[in-house]
Amino acid sequence: MQITTKFLASIHRGRSKLCKLRNIAANEDFRKKTIVANSDGNPLKIAVALSGGVDSMVLLDLLHRYNQQQQQQQQRQKVKPIDGTSTSIDIHAITIDHRIRPESTREAQLIHETLKNRYGANITHHIMPILNEIKMSRLEQEARNFRYELLYQKSIELNANIMMMGHHLDDQIETLLLRLKSGTSIFGACVMNEITRFPIIDNLYREKLKQVYVFRPLLQTDKLSIYDYARENNLVWFQDESNFEEITLRNKYRKLLSGNAINKSQLIDHLQSLDEFQESVESSLESLRKEISVDFDTKLLKMSLKIPNQVFQNFNSIIIDRFLYESVSRVSPIGTYHHRFTSFDSKYATINENRDGKSLSEEIFTRNIRHKFTLVNCEFDAIYGDEYVTLNVKRCRLQANANDPKITIDLSNEDWSDWVLFDNRIKIRLKGQHLGRVNIELFDTKKLQREQVRLDKSFREQILSKESGIDSISQLNGVPMVVTDGKVVGIPTAMLYANNTTLQCEIALKCT
């Protein structure tokens, strides 16, 4: 059957892509046997996002059949695990009860009963309700965010680092139409990939937080094929009628696509072209990363890029702009940064080339830009040499009318606080005895001058000691500080704490 063949092909591609994301070598023979192996001898745990709709129910059934076939094949051939690894799978289906519709809780329970009757103990089912109130004015965005947060939390709890989702070809087309309407760049039009790091949390802060990979094996399968498989295999699924109500723009496109009011084959061709473009860009970026030296200062959250002059001649501007965009994301505090590529390239990155637009790399190469400039709330300093251009990048200082990204945390007990996202750049959690309420805010020497906060002499001397590597207090501008009772007691990124405090910090920095 075509859908089964496509699923298996996706599994094989997924093995290779996961190995690349994890930076491990893929064994060709082993790739054909399983998705990825656990080296500790225990079964690999895979989570499946199960809405109960036909897409996710078909995905779950395909994965179950794949797992059964793998186990039977190993028993027949007496295949021994490689290097003590396990190739069997523990499947965990996770249903999120959005509680938007009155019947959703009952449906979640019916899904549970359906799985129990069909699969018995071969699949473990978890139901997780969204307890937050979802605003109808932001229905699609808020529901998605809460859903992904719960799926991530459950994956970590289960120690499942692969989350399968039932997105399919028609979803890709809907997403493409939505992004084209919003005026996206050519990269935004590339829509979903088969394998990605988990969105929202894991994609940016994977240095400290555990990695979870999203795997979408049905992206090349259309909706009609999914329905055919479900009927042929007597699957039970639950139809969410709100998916066909025109309450969101996506639903409107879905209705148009189901009625053949939109030329689907032409859009599929566009998707194929965008996939090829994305692969070409990634290949060029891989080469470019070997040419440009990037030094990120984890203490002061600033960056220096050393770009050989020949790079501007050997690589297309859009490739260099993409590299700069990805690199500077670690420094920029803009919350919607992933929508801001056109700040770097509004000339070549639009769907239709815009000759009136600008390319940052071209502006730098032709020196058609001041050597000091601001972009995406960052200060850039371009230093031109005979062989290199050095770009120094740091966060802009707070302006008089800007909101200070201050966060208050209660440290009344001795437990670690929850992780908090500070300034859209860094995840922080704190711990301390009898500290009460503390603030995390941006360090700025202006605050010291205005006596908004105090920096004790002993802590100042500690900051400027040889061991710290910090030459002047002004270097701390733009990094997070912890303040209690108006006094600076910690600089988390530099791991510096006042002598008389019990404060402890853990941080997770942005990654590209």
Automatic annotation (TrEMBL):
GO terms for molecular function: ATP binding; tRNA(Ile)-lysidine synthase activity. Gene3D superfamilies: HUPs (3.40.50.620). It comes from [Candida] arabinofermentans NRRL YB-2248. GO terms for biological process: tRNA processing. This is tRNA(Ile)-lysidine synthetase. It is an enzyme of class 6 (ligase). It comes from the Eukaryota. It catalyses: cytidine(34) in tRNA(Ile2) + L-lysine + ATP = lysidine(34) in tRNA(Ile2) + AMP + diphosphate + H(+).
